[in-house]
Design brief:
Length: about 100
């Protein structure tokens, strides 16, 4: 009798755990659909087919607009009145990193 109750209890735990998995996955996915609260970005992510160069990996679910992605690539941009080369000429790999960071926000 005790063995039978143990089996039923284990079966109930497994069923409950499987039922909870989709909700956990959904919660994690919801966190991916949030844009940072930034001056030049959208409030909700969405498709942007014409994102410029370094921003194109996010075109299916982007937080930046086409205009923001183009401005991020300029050496002197109106976005944050920032000059990428303010400390001297920035190496291309470093500049690419910071542009992608700007696109991702």
């Amino acid at each position: 009798m005790a063995w039978r109750m143990t089996q039923l209890l284990l079966l109930a735990l497994v069923a409950a755990a499987r039922g909870a998995q989709p909700r956990i996955s959904q919660a994690r996915t919801d966190l991916l659909n949030v844009c940072m609260d930034a001056k030049h970005h959208k409030t909700k992510p969405g498709p942007e087919d014409k994102l410029h160069d370094q921003c194109s990996p996010w075109k299916k679910n982007a937080c930046c607009s086409v205009n923001t992605s183009q401005e991020a690539h300029k050496d002197i941009s109106y976005l944050y009145r920032f000059n990428w080369d303010h400390c001297g000429k920035m190496k291309p790999a470093c500049k690419r990193h910071f542009i992608q960071d700007t696109c991702l926000r």
